[in-house]
């Protein structure tokens, strides 16, 4: 029999309501599990007597287990391999940042070291982006809200998590209901994450973007754009055929008009494909009427069979200069974390036999710093 996670809030709330148990006891359960994820349900104190048989028969403290934790050479990144109840595996990545090592507007950034968790929402992904390792897995199944939240519980054993980004395995907006429920749990007791420190990334699922603000106000939206026109997008992102660039831009304008929030634009730099100066001008004209932060992402190799190459540092710098100088668009260059453990952007794919070693990586500003 498959058990539900105690973090599957709707299922747990329904069971309690049917038994006449008030839902106010649910945060008590979550607080106990967060502090003692290896404990038993009978050890949770202060619950009504009727709650224990329900928990024992239908729920588990944790439905997933931590299979391995690989740490990068510089100790800034930890990649977690998590086994789900059905035997499938997903990955989550902890990235540690020290903002005082960077500068903004010529001054040292304030604050102390903090951690961001890159979280998965699906096993595999059906978007099949050609530059992304997860796309090579195909799609296997959606994660439940509990399985998503349990990644945060596992990660909290290694570091205090301040930010969560849905940029791991899967397309979050293709698992919209579960992602929304998981985020709502993360924002409540005992996790208490600020919605402004949660970011959901999408390749551009238009119908979900249209309801994003109403459902998740103050949560950040990031869009994996990766190309300045529809032809290039379709070439490297087959799913773009279902979400034409013109309609996507209309959805983003409508979202921003309603939310009054910046949109994060992710743009992977592929040598000779989308990284030329002419592409920068196309992208600048496309985005100049939106309030955005563009994050240029160096391509990470995903195996010897990849047909893509990493853009030269010169091309990346010229691209950034055009966006900043000509179009006044805030543009950052992502310095990768966790590449030596295959934990960098685009490298998440379950492969127990492979551990790359490509040297250490440099510290970078995290998603939180892009709000300053």
Automatic annotation (TrEMBL):
The lineage of its organism: Eukaryota, Viridiplantae, Streptophyta, Embryophyta, Tracheophyta. GO terms for cellular component: cytoplasm. Gene3D superfamilies: Aldolase class I (3.20.20.70). The keyword Metal-binding applies. InterPro entries: Aldolase_TIM, Methyltransferase_A, RNA_MTrfase_RlmN, rRNA_lsu_MTrfase_RlmN/Cfr, rSAM, rSAM_sf. NCBIfam families: rRNA_mod_RlmN. This is Radical SAM core domain-containing protein. Its main location: cytoplasm. Keywords: 4Fe-4S, Cytoplasm, Iron, Iron-sulfur, Metal-binding, Methyltransferase, rRNA processing, S-adenosyl-L-methionine, Transferase. It is found in: Cytoplasm. CDD domains: Radical_SAM. It comes from the Eukaryota.
């Amino acid at each position: 029999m498959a058990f539900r996670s105690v973090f599957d809030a709707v299922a747990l709330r329904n069971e309690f309501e049917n038994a006449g148990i008030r839902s106010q006891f649910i945060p008590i359960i979550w607080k106990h599990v967060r502090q003692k994820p290896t404990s038993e349900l009978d050890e949770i104190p202060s619950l009504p007597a009727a709650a224990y048989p329900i928990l024992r028969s239908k729920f588990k403290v944790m439905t997933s287990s931590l299979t391995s934790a690989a740490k990068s050479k510089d100790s800034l990144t930890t990649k977690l391999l998590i086994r789900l109840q059905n035997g499938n595996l997903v990955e989550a990545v902890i990235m540690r940042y020290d903002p005082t090592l960077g500068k903004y507007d010529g001054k040292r950034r304030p604050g102390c070291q903090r951690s961001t968790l890159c979280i998965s929402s699906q096993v595999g992904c059906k978007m099949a982006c050609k530059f992304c390792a997860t796309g090579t897995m195909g799609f296997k199944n959606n994660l439940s809200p509990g399985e998503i939240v349990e990644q945060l519980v596992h990660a909290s054993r290694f570091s205090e998590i301040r930010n969560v980004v849905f940029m791991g395995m899967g397309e979050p907006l293709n698992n919209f209901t579960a992602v929304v429920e998981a985020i709502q749990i993360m924002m409540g007791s005992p996790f208490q994450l600020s919605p402004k420190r949660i970011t959901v990334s999408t390749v551009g699922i238009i119908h979900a973007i249209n309801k994003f603000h109403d459902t998740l106000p103050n949560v950040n939206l990031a869009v994996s754009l990766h190309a300045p026109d529809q032809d290039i997008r379709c070439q490297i992102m087959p799913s773009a055929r279902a979400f034409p660039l013109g309609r996507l831009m209309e959805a983003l304008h409508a979202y921003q008009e309603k939310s009054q929030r910046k949109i994060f634009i992710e743009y992977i730099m592929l040598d000779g494909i989308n990284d030329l100066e002419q592409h920068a001008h196309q992208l600048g004209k496309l985005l100049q009427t939106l309030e955005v932060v563009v994050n240029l992402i160096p391509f990470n190799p995903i195996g010897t069979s990849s047909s893509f190459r990493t853009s030269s540092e010169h091309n990346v710098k010229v691209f950034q200069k055009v966006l900043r100088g000509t179009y006044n668009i805030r543009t950052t260059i992502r310095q990768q974390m966790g590449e030596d453990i295959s934990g960098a952007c685009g490298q998440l794919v379950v492969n127990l036999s492979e551990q790359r070693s490509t040297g250490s990586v440099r510290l970078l500003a995290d998603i939180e710093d892009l709000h300053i």
